[in-house]
Amino acid sequence: MNNGIKKAxxxxxxxxxxxxxxxxxxxxxxxxxxxxxxxxxYLKVAVEQNYWKSVFIFIISYIAIIAVFIPxxxxxxxxxxxxxxxxxxxxxxxxxxxxGATCSFLIxxxxxxxxxxxxxxxxxxxxxxxxxxxxxxxYLLTMQLIGIVPYFIINTLAALAHVSTxxxxxxxxIGSMPMLFVYTCxxxxxxxxxxxxxxxxxxxxxxxxxxxxxLLIPVGIKFFSRSRD
Length: 229
Prior knowledge:
The protein has 229 residues and is mostly helical. The chain has one domain. It is built from 13 helices and no strands. Helix 3 packs across helix 4, helix 4 (51-67) runs parallel beside helix 6 (86-110) and helix 5 runs antiparallel to helix 6 (86-110). The longest helix is centred in the C-terminal third of the chain and has 27 residues, at 202-228. 28% of the residues are buried.
């Protein structure tokens, strides 16, 4: 068994262990809407009494989830809006998402490089050509903002292409802002709900509409690109 496979298995066992712990202790039940509503006042008081401790725990948890390749950006960002309100929620989620993505970026670059390099050889070649033409920062930021390519693939290609860590960090922070804004709006809306029926209020419908618009941007870009071609 070569070193690449051993490293991949080690990371897989760590991820599996984290998921087992979450499931065993029932931590997954705390991210449901019913749980939010049931514990809303308790959570708000706990955050107010231990604000910076709550911020620290939230950011560290966000970083850990993203770093081990768990797709936790939507629920964690919604939770941030729920606990910390709009703009602080965006800021804390932005820090967690960008630092967590950078950790996964470094894991791929220094631990799982052999496995991913073989699987992404063709895409990596195209990615390097685009970087050579447009520059690493511009191309990464554009890909992050328009969202045509999944974030995980962007992270992987950037790690394999030896994009600088600092460039990856700040482009990820800025590029994730549109999605963070929408999900934080959703979390803020949850905090103001008086009941489950409040999901269908005008404010929540606006949040859903914003999310649909953001998700449809890549489709529109592809359509107009093909039309021009």
